[in-house]
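[Discussion] Sanity-checking designs against the backbone

I'm trying to build intuition for which residues belong where. Below is a structure token string of 239 positions. I'd appreciate it if someone posts a full sequence so I can compare it with mine line by line.
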């Protein structure tokens, strides 16, 4: 495979694979290894994952890894405001694909608590995350072609609040007009301090978006993913 040309900021590691399965497997190997390492020195480890379509093979590969899953807290970086039985539910995706096999005994911390809007459930969702140690251990992000990541959407009126580095809340309610469902997301301040951050991408369109994001790295409100394009990030990509 011809290695895609990308002018990423220095210190970003790239892993380009021929197939989505290969990328998923590589990412699962690395995440499992990192979690094992954390569990040597800490009582619990945390794993924050994205929804959408890209992570499915990664979830399946990771769920079969051998590690002390009973000491791992799994949470979503964002959720759509739908019922858990809805096809668009990220919780459903994670429960059906990641919290299976060896990973079935991991503890799932739900960022979607009861309430008719994300705003209404924020208090209960923050409570759910009270015992989560900061910083997060592992954060696996996706990216949309508008430059969003997690539910940090460029058109959300709440974006500056959710991306404010001084905002110590774990969560923010998001109502991007471009999206069918309202959303709840981890805040940028919480996510950016994670010990291990990966951006998992599939498709040539995502590479083009990444190039666009690299062209003007400082305008994070235009493309929120820019906030993560820093030394230490690991990019996993396949066509
Ligand atoms: O719930 C979500 O929608 C996400 O967590 C979101 O940030 C996702 O990661 C990107 O939109 C990429 O989605 P795809 O993997 O479907 O391209």
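Best answer:
Here's mine. Compare freely.
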């Amino acid at each position: 495979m011809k290695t895609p040309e990308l002018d990423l900021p220095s210190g970003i590691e790239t892993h380009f694979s021929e197939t989505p399965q290969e990328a998923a497997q590589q990412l699962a190997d690395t995440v499992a290894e990192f979690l094992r390492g954390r569990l040597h020195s800490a009582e619990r480890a945390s794993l924050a994952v994205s929804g959408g379509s890209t992570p499915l093979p990664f979830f399946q590969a990771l769920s079969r890894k051998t590690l002390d899953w009973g000491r791992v807290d799994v949470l979503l970086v964002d959720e759509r405001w739908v019922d858990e039985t809805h096809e668009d539910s990220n919780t459903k995706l994670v429960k059906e694909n990641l919290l299976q096999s060896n990973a079935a005994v991991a503890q799932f911390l739900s960022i979607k608590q009861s309430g008719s809007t994300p705003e209404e459930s924020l208090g209960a969702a923050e409570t759910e995350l009270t015992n989560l140690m900061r910083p997060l251990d592992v954060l696996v992000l996706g990216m949309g072609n508008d430059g969003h990541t997690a539910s940090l959407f460029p058109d959300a009126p709440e974006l500056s609040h959710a991306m404010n580095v001084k905002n110590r809340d774990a969560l923010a309610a998001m109502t991007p007009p471009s999206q069918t469902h309202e959303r709840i997301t981890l805040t940028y301040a919480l996510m950016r301090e994670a010990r291990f951050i990966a951006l998992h991408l599939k498709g040539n369109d995502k590479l083009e978006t990444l190039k666009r994001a690299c062209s003007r790295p400082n305008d994070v409100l235009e493309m929120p993913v820019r906030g993560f394009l820093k030394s230490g990030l690991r990019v996993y990509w396949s066509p």
